[in-house]
Amino acid sequence: MDTLLSLSTDLAGAVERASRAVVAVHARPRLASTGVVWQPGVIVTADHTVRAEEDLRVTLPDGTVGAATLAGRDPATDLAVLRVADAGGVLAERGDAADLRVGHVVLAVGHGPRASWGVVSALGEGWRTGRGGEIDRFVRLDLTLYPGFSGGPLVDARGRTVGIVTSGFAGGLELAVPLSTVERVVGALVTSGHVARGYLGVGLQPVELPDALRRATPAAGAQGLLVVSVQPDGPAGTAGVLIGDVLVALDGGTVGDTDAVQRLVASRPIGSTVSAALIRGGAPITVGIAVGPRPRRSR
Amino acid sequence: MGASTAAAERPPASRPASSLGAGPVRLVTSVALDLEALAARLRRVTVVIADGRRGAGAGVVWRPDGLVITNAHVASGPVSVTLADGHRVGAALLARDERRDLAAIRVPRQGLEAAEPGPVATLRVGQLVLAVGHPLGLAGALSVGIVHAPPPAPADDRGAWLVADLRLRPGNSGGPLADDRGRVVGINAMVHGGLALAVPSAAVARFLDEAGLGGA
């Protein structure tokens, strides 16, 4: 029974190690969710479990209950950050989400501690959530996220945190937001309270480019993006982009669909300049656009 | 995979004590062999119980003298019991506690192989647990999961369950939940929100004492 016992002991040890950084988050009626002590005094949880913005409380691993304040939230990646005055608790021990492979045994740890086990069922490239959040890697889990588990750590067999679990994305799938995304979003939330996403302020519509135009415009591919609306004081409007222009490339890279534009722009620092290759009145022109922050959705 | 093939692939005894990630195929095979051995042991102490009214449940041979433990909702009167050796016998109901969902029955046999009760209070969240039962009529089926929540305190007799992240089905009721050494730590009783709920083995001992059935 050596191997089974060894696996069993490893799993129990993994839960024990991970649970030292796991807290209960009381931010909605009745059902507490789970959070992870990420930095001293900083707790990460799943945004969709934070219904209240005031009178928040957390229960630390030692059972003490403390007041928490909402430092910031990013519904697009389903992450929220709370601050607690009591910096007690051990910080989550990070693993490397890049090491994850389909079939790896993993655990989801909820406050209590409670645990659920399963395997990584699918991995994929980075993806964009329905609300525009960039997730560095698609991580789908074959395990049960019991009520209150969202916001807790995804733990590898060594007890290291490799992501934050959530069933809060469309469809309620059991997914994990990988470590690198959590680090990036938490950094932004701690610093500024929100995640600024690059934004041009234009509405675009894909159009086929006639051969004559393509020959005249070396940067262009088979498709361009017709500018159908321009936000007057937005980044593109300020740079002089007009309705009727056709966007064919950004920073030298051909853009044939709106997803490609959103991906590129969202990843650019606010204030940086992208070079937009446009066709205006049949002639190629280039315009520098200073990337602005996407206006925050009012709640 | 046949047993002989599997045995040939058993890793050497000198492998590291904890070696997840090393020699994946051998390890997985080795885990499977361990599970197979524990399941075989649990099957020898698990019986099928039919009371003629609904689908069959399970029971655990608790003592060699024929004392079998099951759920109160599985045995409400005299029942028909199929032992691990395939023999079918009638059993008398000795005691029943609906609140705790436990029942004790006696089969007319001596010298049965009995379950080894295991400690509940020392179970750790994440530790592997095994269930054997007859889910949807499939006799002797194995389910594997982990301890989901800290075990109930020893003194907590009233309604405290042992909770496992493990898939149970009708027909698992009354069967054993065992720890990673094959010791019976609970009697599977119900499914709640996808979780397996078992009556801790300590509660079984108390139940037997209260019913005057304590001791061998």
Q: DSSP helix count of chain A?
A: 5
Strand order of the largest sheet of chain B: 1-2-3-6-5-4
- Return Rg of chain B in Å: 17 Å
The CA-CA distance between the termini of chain B, in Å, is 41 Å
Largest sheet of chain A: 6 strands, antiparallel, barrel
Descriptive keywords:
heterodimer, A: 299 residues, alpha+beta, Thrombin, subunit H, Pdz3 Domain, 2 domains, six-stranded antiparallel beta barrel, 5 helices, 22 strands, B: 216 residues, six-stranded antiparallel barrel, six-stranded antiparallel β-barrel, 3 helices, 12 strands
Summarize the structure.
Chain A is built from 5 helices and 22 strands. Chain A has 299 residues and is an alpha+beta fold. In chain A, the strands form 5 sheets. A 6-stranded antiparallel β-barrel of chain A has the order 1-2-3-6-5-4. A 6-stranded antiparallel beta barrel of chain A has the order 7-8-11-14-13-12. In chain A, strands 16, 17, 18, 19, 20 and 21 form a 6-stranded antiparallel β-sheet that branches.
Structure description:
The complex is a heterodimer of chains A (299) and B (216). With 299 residues, chain A is of the alpha+beta class. Chain A has helices at residues 2-19, 179-192, 211-216, 235-239, 258-266; strands at residues 22-26, 33-39, 42-46, 56-59, 65-74, 79-84, 105-110, 114-124, 127-128, 134-135, 138-142, 153-155, 161-166, 175-178, 198-199, 202-208, 223-230, 246-250, 253-254, 273-280, 283-290, 292-293. Chain A has two domains: 1-195, Beta Barrel (Thrombin, subunit H); 198-293, Pdz3 Domain, CATH 2.30.42. Chain A has a six-stranded antiparallel β-barrel. Helix content of chain B is 17%, strand content 31%. The longest helix of chain B has 21 residues, at 24-44. Among the domains of chain B are: 44-114, Thrombin, subunit H, CATH 2.40.10; 128-207, Trypsin-like serine proteases (Thrombin, subunit H, Beta Barrel), CATH 2.40.10.10. Chain B has helices spanning 3-8, 24-44, 201-210; strands spanning 46-50, 57-61, 67-70, 79-82, 88-97, 102-106, 128-133, 141-147, 162-165, 176-178, 184-192, 195-200. Chain B has 216 residues and is an alpha+beta fold. In chain B, the strands form two sheets. Chain B has a six-stranded antiparallel beta barrel. A six-stranded antiparallel β-barrel of chain B has the order 7-8-9-12-11-10. The A-B interface holds A 1-16, 19, 105, 107, 112-117, 144, 146-147, 157-158 and B 11, 13, 17-21, 27, 30-31, 33-35, 37-38, 124-128, 145-150, 165, 180-182, 193-195.
